[in-house]
Amino acid sequence: MSLFITSLNSGSNGNCYYIGNEHEAILVDAGISCKETEIRMCRLGLSMQKVKAIFISHEHSDHIRGVSVLAKKYRLPVYITPLTYQHGGLFLDDDLVFTFLAFEAVSVGSLFITAFPKLHDAAHPHSFIISCGDIRVGVFTDIGAACDNVITHFKQCHAAFLEANYDDELLNNGRYPYHLKRRIRGGHGHLSNLQALDIFINHKAPYLTHLLLAHLSQDNNDPELVHNLFNSHANGTVVVVASRQRETPVYHITGIAPAMNIPEAFAPLQFSLF
Predict the structure, then answer these.
(1) Chain-centre distance for alpha carbon 158
(2) Is the pTM higher than 0.70?
């Protein structure tokens, strides 16, 4: 068993992550338009016909902006908690709305998606682990702090999307007002580079082959800085910086470490600098 993953977009302007096998796939969040989702998947050679469901982490607009059109056009079930649905102001056809419970796996073909609660300033936020056979991929974004749930699930991953939202110095010296800075780093906002790095160094599994750094701030972070910081501690893990403007390549997660001379670790960095 194996999984294919890509970030279609990652940042405060929209988040959407594709995880699938050879037969079916899901999207975690749909924060870019239906048209952009289709364009980016087409560029990657991915078919929307393989997408069988959308899982929504929370109700902020950069995670749900495209869900209504996508779900309606492709008749996709949307897995979302009642509180997230209510606070998101969504209006979906009743037959497309499904809920999920924390720690209880939802099956989509041969994929199993398990949600768990996280710390974020939303009504009912969750992150997800997607598994196929014994391969597991985690989506860990919009996290205020590394709670036990995050650490426990990160330790299980063969690949992960991990938030590295801001550099402390850039945030401190940046243009954001004090109340927004406090919200970002207040324990229910976002992970800093160093907080994410601590998770990576101290809790990654020996079989973690790919790390996609996600949800970088446009104002308070720098893709090259982040890549260099994490790559210096990679020890064989492919480190990718997900772009705010474009999709990453598709990565094949097999549980086998990639050869060290494969240039894919550096190609996504070029995308992130667009």
Answers:
(1) 14
(2) yes
